Amino acid sequence: MERKELTKGEMEMAKQLSEMIEKLDKVVFPGNPIEVLVVKDYPERENERFRYVDKCCIAESEGGEISKEGEHYIIYGFGLDQRIGQEKRKRIMLFKDSEMSKNSKDLPLLSLGEVLVAIASHEVRHRFQNHFPNDLFSPGDVGRTNDPYLKRLTEYTTLLCKGISPKHYEIEIDAGLIEHWVTEKWHWGERDLSQIAKIVKSKPIPNKKELSSLFFYEIFN
Question: What is the pTM for the complete model shown?
Answer without folding.
Answer: 0.85
